[in-house]
Amino acid sequence: MARRASKVSLCAALGAALVVGTAACSAAHGTAGRTGTGQLRVVAGFYPLQVLAERIGGDAVSVTNLAKPGAEPHDLELNPGQVASIADAALVVYLKGFQPDVDKTVAQEAAKTAFDVTTVEPLASAATGDEDPAEAKALRGKDPHVWLDPTRLATIGDRLADRLSQLDPGHTADFRSRTAALRTDLEKLDKEYAEGLRSCARRDVVTSHAAFGYLAKRYGLTQVAITGISPEQEPSPQRLAEVAAQAKAHQATTIFFETLVSPKVAQALANEVGARTAVLDPIEGLQPGSTADYLSVMRANLATLRPALGCP
Q1: Suppose 150 and one of 35, 96, 190, 265 were both cysteines; which one would form an S-S bond, judging by CB atoms 3.0 to 4.6 Å apart?
Q2: Which ranges in 29-171 belong to alpha helices (H)?
């Protein structure tokens, strides 16, 4: 469907048969950005941003996550209803460069209502500068996974609270209180990681793709990624040989893969170096029906890392 530059034209394109089209049209006539009960409509690009919006906004917001549970959020292709929800939102929380279709739609439909978290925490290169030329090429680009450093996520939460307060000044005190509680939780998590990973026998974390650079930097680890930023990227035989050699040299006991991507490459590498495999979740999204949340998955990651790295 061709996208329109205004909410009115968007409504016409969706048609009267779509309920969401009707909602978007009514929003264009005076209720844009609010639900029928007065909540701010907030759209989040994917799960960690949904967590921030819900924790900080509380019952003053109604949050829609564009990425479905179990789906890879990188590859999200928006349907007409999702385009309408972006156009009708009071706030769109997204990470520019992570979801191309969301970037395009925000630019066309929600430039004035967008909150890009990279304006708070600029993205770092996936390469560290210590790689050989072939590895650096595989890791080119910016790493979007800022939420895996709890301190960075807390800073983004602070700025999101500012933005919500501008939109709904009457709930500013509530936003501030919830943000303080969130920061307390994230600082506690950060302390658990720092203490849990302080005295490990090994510091190399061999992962299926380069999602853990911020976590590694925060806690003094070294990420050794089989592939680059894109989890669908196929590693070259040369790259596999390089990672296998490094894993053997540093006596890696575990090759990590993630929940939303096939573990075949990680399993093949583990077989070659005599290691086991384990899940290290980048928390881009939850599995359908999961009762976990960001904090519990981060703690599960820590519990997986500690024995793999020989932490006392």
Answers
A1: 190
A2: 47-57, 80-88, 100-109, 133-138, 150-167
